[in-house]
Amino acid sequence: SSTRYDSRPTPIFRTNVEIPSIQMSNIKLYFLPERLLLKKGRKFAAIFYNDLKVVGKEARYIEHKRVPRDATIVSYTWKYVNKDGSRDRRFNNNYQIPVCAYSEYHFVCDQGLDEIIVTSKTGGMAGFSDFIASIGQYQNQFDEIP
Question: What is the 3-state secondary structure (H, E, C) of 4-72?
């Protein structure tokens, strides 16, 4: 996935604010001021932030490729391991592989969104997901007005 700090869903879309976006494998998320806009192919959907739930948690990933600069290595494992986690000595090309602490952010809502964003920096989107939650709480205040 890739992140942009100012992008438009379509060329005819006009706004006076920057629109952060995240390109996932099959969907693009546009974070508008009052709602999340989703684009899949040529179809769009919108979700108010008070209907969106973002759950963050730490996860461990075995990094078979290059370790990102902002990742934290928490331990090492072997390419081939025994059941007890020790090095399998039957393989002479058995090398150590880093285990990194990453963060997963699960974006979910009742309208059908169910996406996970993984950051190599622990807590990489914590402030952003807290901000989205605070917008949702603010929107809930308007739903409660009779």
Answer: ECCCCCCCCCCCCCCCCEEECCCCEEEECCCEEEEEECCEEEEEEHHHCEEEEEEEEEECCCCCCCCCE
